[in-house]
Specification:
By secondary structure, the protein is an alpha/beta fold. It has helices at about 5-10, 15-25, 30-45, 65-80, 95-105, 125-135, 160-170, 190-205, 220-230, 245-255, 290-305; strands at about 55-60, 85-90, 110-115, 140, 155, 180, 215, 235-240, 265-270, 285, 310-315, 320.
Length: about 325
């Protein structure tokens, strides 16, 4: 049987938190309790293999507050168990993902988290994953399934539901010409948000919803360009694929002489803290950052303790946060 802190805690008759304190040699545990935990670890064959090791978090968009927040929360979940996170910002023009992995794979890495990295891309090279499997280093994906045939746990926000929540909110406000500022082609989350948007519009009788989708980069500039194009098509509302794109959309709308939300409503996606302090405060579909990070942390602890974690994708429900960037359609 694969032994983890759950089994040790049960054998010693203490909480998992107490076992964690003993493993990490922290104060506040009575000698009798510490001896019982040490004895249980010895009897069960538990190894302190993870003590002091690193968990690499690979992401392309560390400048985006959402990804920084997820990485920080993963660190908080792992630190009490003796694991430290190493942030690997594999952005275009910098050190790339394969270089990061090959340079750290022999440095005591306990696990790797792909945070909206290569796991979001269609046709991504699987060599990095094969290297990790060969070294028996577990890995997890966040917000993007790995290429077909790559067995790993993945934890994602339900992008289809996110699009439905945004469209439903705008439709209830009377908007019918709703456009989407989407991420680029070939990006798994972007593809699913587009599919969710098109299906949500189709359920409301819009047969040509594809024409209301503009593909752009996940940037302020991308959101601005998409919004200007959608205004040219007569859109009264914009569903942005990220909060950054929503910022750009608002800027583009204003530069065209329109107001938000008086003339055009805007909905973002991610739910980062800054959205509450924008002008106007941004209506957004919030990703469940805390639950995503908690599940990632829990699964890593299981994997590095040689316990099985189900592979495949687990979806988490997002939440619509209504603020002042959305209002009734003009004329309503």
């Amino acid at each position: 049987m694969k032994v983890g802190i759950v089994e040790v805690a049960a054998r010693a008759g203490v909480s998992e938190a107490t076992v964690s304190r003993v493993i990490n040699r922290r104060q506040g545990v009575a000698k009798k309790t510490r001896d019982a935990v040490e004895s249980a670890m010895s009897e069960l064959g538990y190894e302190r293999a993870v003590q002091g090791q690193l968990v690499a978090v690979v992401t392309e968009r560390v400048s985006n507050p959402f990804f920084a927040d997820v990485a920080e929360r993963i660190e908080s979940a792992l630190a009490p168990h003796g694991l430290k996170t190493l942030l690997c910002p594999a952005f275009p023009g910098g050190v790339q993902e394969p270089e990061f992995i090959t340079s750290i794979v022999d440095k005591g890495i306990a696990a790797v988290v792909f945070l909206s990295a290569s796991n979001t891309l269609e046709g991504a090279d699987t060599d990095t994953y094969e290297l990790l499997r060969a070294r028996r280093i577990p890995y997890i994906g966040v917000n993007g399934e790995f290429a077909d045939g790559v067995p790993a746990p993945v934890f994602s926000t339900d992008d289809m539901l996110a699009a439905e929540l945004a469209v439903d909110h705008l439709y209830r406000l009377g908007h019918r010409r709703i456009g989407m500022a989407s991420g680029p082609t070939g990006n798994h989350p972007a593809e699913r948000r587009v599919r969710g948007f098109v299906e949500a519009m189709a359920r409301r009788g819009v047969a040509d919803a594809d024409r209301w989708v503009i593909r752009q980069s996940y940037t302020v500039e991308g959101g601005q360009a998409a919004a200007v194009s959608l205004l040219g098509r007569g859109a009264t509302a914009v569903v942005a694929a990220s909060d950054y794109m929503a910022l750009g959309a608002i800027r583009g709308i204003r530069r065209q002489g329109y107001s938000v939300p008086g003339d055009v409503s805007v909905v973002g996606y991610d739910g980062t803290m800054i959205t509450e302090f924008l002008d106007p405060p941004l209506t957004t579909v919030r990703q469940p950052t805390d639950r995503l990070a908690l599940e990632v942390g829990r699964s890593i602890l299981e994997l590095v303790s040689n316990r099985d974690v189900p592979t495949g994708e687990l979806l988490f429900d997002p939440e619509l946060v209504i603020r002042a960037s959305t209002g009734p359609a003009p004329g309503e």
